[in-house]
Amino acid sequence: MDRRTFLRNSVLGAAAVTLVPLGLRGQIAKRAMKPGRLNLSFTPHELHLRHAFNLAKSSRTVTPDVLVRIEFDGIIGYGEASMPPYLGESEKSVCNFLSQLDLTQFNDPFRIGEIHRYMDIVSNGNYAAKCAVDIALHDIVGKITGQPWHRMWGLSAADAPCTSFTIGIDTPEVVRQKVQEASPYRVLKVKMGLDRDKETVELIRSMTDVPICADVNQGWTDRKMALDMCHWLADRGCLFVEQPFDKTDVKNTMWLREHSPLPIIADEAVQLVDDVRRIADVYDGINIKLMKCGGMHQAHEMAVVAKALGLKVMLGCMTETSCAVTAAAQLAPMADWADLDGNLLITNDPFDGLKIVDGKITLPSDRPGIGVVEI
Hints:
Layout: H1 3-15, E1 29-30, E2 39-44, E3 47-54, E4 59-63, E5 65-72, E6 75-82, H2 91-100, H3 112-122, H4 127-145, H5 149-152, E7 164-167, H6 172-181, E8 187-191, H7 197-205, E9 212-215, H8 223-234, E10 238-242, H9 250-259, E11 264-266, H10 273-278, E12 285-288, H11 290-293, H12 296-308, E13 312-315, H13 322-329, E14 337-338, E15 351-352, E16 355-357, E17 360-362, E18 373-374
Parallel strand pairs: 7-8, 8-9, 9-10, 10-11, 11-12, 12-13, 13-14
Antiparallel strand pairs: 1-2, 2-5, 3-4, 5-6, 15-18, 16-17
């Protein structure tokens, strides 16, 4: 049977599976186990934030999340889907997609690329859901080989950078509290996009002189004001400005990049590896997030292509548990900057994974796979 026929039949087989109802939270959607096959199960897990997460255009106190387990001959791989609101995914869409998958047709977890092609035929998009499967597969493969993934990629854990700690848009009192909580970190990421951005930075500077990076989340609209802000921020120890304009505003972004004293980094404007090539002349670097691109498989390819094009690489995350954050951190030695603090922003993390030691990402090198254990 050729691959095209195999994949077509796989889709037809998956379509015949009864969808698992989105019933009570905490119940695992699970099919009967098949030995020597990949067995998928998943459960919703709402993430509770320590503080309200405020951006220029939104605010939330919880994040929908779905935890995934794939079991293969007694080896369990862990994965996770945390839904970026701007990509239109939800707990329902993730669970519906996962319910359509029939991974029991695969008897080899090393076939990650083929399983991605199968998932793409089942449905376009659904990158957070595909990411959960991808992470779990990488976890299994790493456990089979007995190696963490940074070693599988030929990377040294010692080369992982410091991670920034996010200071969201908030009242001066809460900003002050967040800066105090962030005292162990060597870099702060400051969310911007409102008319009180300067006041927030000045407050932070009254408490600490650690470098900052500005994440505007598409919040600026006037390029003259944006350039003035870039110069102002450069004088206050800012490393770069992330996604200053709407992701479709190529003209103003190119103008700002040409005139700004600070690097301009793409976040919402870049999702997959083809986007890296498309924006190479518009931005100075990219922010890679597993939930945007569909997992570790695509993220590694994006980092390789970005480096080849002379772009800076930032490794980011959504609000996530230590499962997805530690999976992303396996790629951290390739990054110029890292913003892997999503697990630090929640109160109900069910995993133990990477540690932040004196602000630096410290990978659990004695653990194979993605490097997490359930707690």
